[in-house]
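go over whats below:
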Amino acid sequence: MHSFDLALIWAFIIGFGVIMYVLMDGFDLGVGILFPFAPDEASRDVMMNSVAPVWDGNETWLVLGGAGLLAAFPLVYTILLPALYIGVFLLLAGLIFRGVAFEFRFKARTSRYLWNWAFAGGSTVASFAQGAVVGAYIQGFETANKVYVGGALDWLTPFTVLTGLGMLAGYALLGSTWLILKTEGELQDWAYRITTPLLATVLVVFGIVSVWTPFVNDMVRERWFSTIDVIWVLPVLALLCAFQIFRSVRRRFNGMPFVATMGLFIFTYLGLLVSRWPYVVPPNYTIWDASSAYDSQLFLLLGLLFVIPIILTYTAWTYWVFRGKVRAGEGYH
């Protein structure tokens, strides 16, 4: 009998890594989604410069979450990767295109429009793939004897297409509120104008997904509707965050729209976790079924006790160094 439930601790660490990735990479993916609709090319320069110092550091959380998942819950990889090969490939391909566009766009002259499309297209594909993967997780996976037995395209359904579109809208909202925080003048005015329609789109899509989900998964329906209890505070808090976004945009606050949008994502994410807890590979396998050996988890945990504070420190330092408004003509390249 072990004194610590390491599977529970690892579930918390990976859950924390995932939400950190969603929040921190979400806004720069959102900037990419909005890229083709920017007022002009000078605005696109400012948009890209607003995320240039932080975008690659933001993806550290994706690496941490993915590596931790492989080490602590190997069964998740055994089942989820075969089930989601195409979705994960699209996600990584989108991130690669976006990363290359960061490096080449500022150096290009005649081909700059191609890198604009690579940045926007990569961000859009990666965001949609993330949303579709979340939808597939809500649906559950067809397994037998701890092996995935479904088809390569089982993850792609009308429901996952809707969750993919919801993630696109959500990341675009994060991107627009980030631009409110980091820019000024015409570009900031544009960001204020598009934030309210984006918020409305997010609420409509999230509303449809919320109504649809209990019909997609029996366990989720039972978790939310068998007894009305404290978990219903999560959607209420999410709606309060949405109201705060609307209110702070109307009052032209600088930082509050972004903070409230992060709150909207956090409470939605917690609602998803509550819906599926403790199943890490729904509908059959819990975090304890999927976990690696206790000694392996303990060894890796000791390493992470050093790594996570370092990541948090350099992330905070980066955002502190590059605080303030980004103006036309200023850049970090």
